[in-house]
Amino acid sequence: xxxxxxxxxxxxxxxxxxxxxxxxxxxxxxxxxxxxxxxxxxxxxxxxxxxxxxxxxxxxxxxxxxxxxxxxxxxxxxxxxxxxxxxxxxxxxxxxxxxxxxxxxxxxxxxxxxxxxxxxxxxxxxxxxxxxxxxxxxxxxxxxxxxxxxxxxxxxxxxxxxxxxxxxxxxxxxxxxxxxxxxxxxxxxxxxxxxxxxxxxxxxxxxxxxxxxxxxxxxxxxxxxxxxxxxxxxxxxxxxxxxxxxxxxxxxxxxxxxxxxxxxxxxxxxxxxxxxxxxxxxxxxxxxxxxxxxxxxxxxxxxxxxxxxxxxxxxxxxxxxxxxxxxxxxxxxxxxxxxxxxxxxxxxxxxxxxxxxxxxxxxxxxxxxxxxxxxxxxxxxxxxxxxxxxxxxxxxxxxxxxxxxxxxxxxxxxxxxxxxxxxxxxxxxxxxxxxxxxxxxxxxxxxxxxxxxxxxxxxxxxxxxxxxxxxxxxxxxxxxxxxxxxxxxxxxxxxxxxxxxxxxxxxxxxxxxxxxxxxxxxxxxxxxxxxxxxxxxxxxxxxxxxxxxxxxxxxxxxxxxxxxxxxxxxxxxxxxxxxxxxxxxxxxxxxxxxxxxxxxxxxxxxxxxxxxxxxxxxxxxxxxxxxxxxxxxxxxxxxxxxxxxxxxxxxxxxxxxxxxxxxxxxxxxxxxxxxxxxxxxxxxxxxxxxxxxxxxxxxxxxxxxxxxxxxxxxxxxxxxxxxxxxxxxxxxxxxxxxxxxxxxxxxxxxxxxxxxxxxxxxxxxxxxxxxxxxxxxxxxxxxxxxxxxxxxxxxxxxxxxxxxxxxxxxxxxxxxxxxxxxxxxxxxxxxxxxxxxxxxxxxx
Length: 844
Prior knowledge:
Layout: H1 3-20, H2 25-38, E1 52-57, H3 68-86, E2 90-92, E3 96-97, H4 102-111, H5 115-132, E4 143-144, H6 148-163, E5 167-177, E6 182-184, E7 189-190, E8 193-194, E9 201-211, H7 217-222, H8 232-242, E10 245-254, E11 260-265, E12 276-279, H9 284-289, H10 296-307, H11 311-316, E13 322-330, E14 337-343, E15 354-357, H12 363-372, E16 380-381, E17 407-408, H13 419-433, E18 436-441, E19 447-448, E20 450-451, E21 461-464, E22 468-471, H14 499-502, E23 503-505, E24 512-515, E25 519-520, H15 523-526, H16 529-532, H17 545-551, E26 556-560, H18 566-580, E27 593-596, E28 599-601, E29 604-605, H19 616-622, H20 625-634, E30 642-643, H21 646-666, H22 674-678, H23 692-710, H24 714-728, H25 735-745, H26 750-759, H27 776-779, E31 783-790, E32 793-801, H28 806-814, H29 817-822, E33 828-833, E34 839-843
Parallel strand pairs: 1-2, 1-26, 3-4, 12-14, 26-27, 28-30, 31-34
Antiparallel strand pairs: 5-6, 5-9, 7-8, 9-19, 10-11, 10-13, 10-18, 12-15, 13-14, 16-17, 20-25, 21-22, 21-24, 23-24, 28-29, 31-32, 33-34
């Protein structure tokens, strides 16, 4: 037997062996997860000559287990990380745990456990689940917000804000959840319900800590324009929440009193149409102005009644209620006496808590006036209602408020002025009279950060009878959460019942003192965690400025749209405040933002409370992690809702099996020559002559997949890979083609890709490979124009793919309308196909 024949037999045996290898995803996925971990494949360098790419997913709350909604978020981030690494970036892709919060404490009370123990068990389980998915996290940077090495720095940041005047304490009416037994920020009381448990929110007056986020209202608003990589929907939500309005503050005197009422309005052009004033029931002057009036008792009773109402109910209610205080204000524009009412449709939180009511030009005022029989005075009419001399007007049919621009009437010297122009003119006039000034108001209120619960970072403040509120010295941080506390389910923080924690000494005078027993809202922890990832093991500072300068801002942030106001706004505030304190180099945290849609099952968002959760462990055990990833990315564009489908999961598994068979059964055919085998199973061998169409399809796919990944259109990228697999089915193709296919599937299904890559004889990990580049000429869809003749006379033209077969060209030619008409009722003698240059149909 010659050496050549022997090597041929060996090569055939090698191919048969490959064909016999089954797609054993359990072994393959465990093998490569262990390999990546052992070789620290996913760890990033804090300094590198490579360009950086900070790829961040919103870190999970350790609730006990992840569901497919989580998998969607993390799979998207993983595609970006793997793709960018193959493009030559130094990729930071970290993960951690948003571990403080109410659910852990509630679970402790319910299950007679401890929040720390419960949280650590949840983290342990979820960590195993995440690793099973093969996510390329840099686990060396893992952070856990409930650990002392993290919340020490959360407390430190609080102290920096306190020194800068951004943290303060005041008595305030707060949102209270009886179920969670804690305070909620306005953003957490959605539609009058707790954002966590959906319980009704009540109101209480308590001493609370706040961050002065209003000091950054302008910066937060103006810099939204910098966020070019954010979805418009999120930017709109943030603009609306900040709610900037430019207007005029007008001073109204109260009759027979030295008191005045201040009103903020964006419509000073309606001042001459004011027919009554309305005060919020909580306004400090509401009771005072009625004190000597017969209406005092009715006003007092009304205020008590309103206290039981929810703010949102008051805002949305169509029913108008109120009481006349018995007092009058003086309109500074015309000295008319105006009755002062109180009504629940006015809120103390908005403007000044006092409204100048103009029923003719505000619908809520109109409805109130109609109910209580108050006058309606028109001061703006449409242009077509004004006489030519602009001194008279045709009366309006008063069926509702007229709120559009128009011309001023019944407004003294301003009659005939266009209402938009009158806004400035009347404001200037009021300023000259000393009863008005220009002012800017915001809807946003300062961030309420204190919570009456145990499981949170203790607020580092000590109360001394001599010295007042004293910040804990930085050297004494962290203020540690004591482990030995009792969870009774009673109201208030369990810390308040721990004498060991509460009793301390004053850092200033050394006398006995007491610690603050409120803890920080968990959003404090999540508002800076992206900074801690950069130096997570550093003990003497929260982060290093030079490393931040390299990594910040985050290049791509990925998470749910539900965090558009809460987390994203707070993170922007933290970053801007730290920037102004010269602690960080960037004033915005996130350059680009992708908000993925929810995963829906049985018509509802997938969640434990709704009982419609799909356990990823079930999917990974039955079909593999690559299948779970592929389905969750293929089923829908990332920003849209995804409807769960068991059939879709099975389809994704079948597709991966097809790829496995395609590579193992076809990638090395035709049988390699002995010299090819000895060189590494065809590595580097040029594409074969018969692969013209395959090469063109390959380059077209590379271009399409690359473009789709860049714009996060993962479902269409996978579709293009599927089309390529179909085109390769049953065809002979080179190892180079197989390698490019494997690289393209790698970000979506990394385990099977690594295995196939090595089965082709490659020794290096696929992660170190470069993302393939397409040839623009080959990627173009080559089309040619073919003239169609009948008996040598041009009758029509068709567009066709270059290299079209004779059979297909003839079929296209015979099916055009013009040719059908030209050969109707004629006999075709023959059809001549001149190699893509023309088709001539001979008839008689």
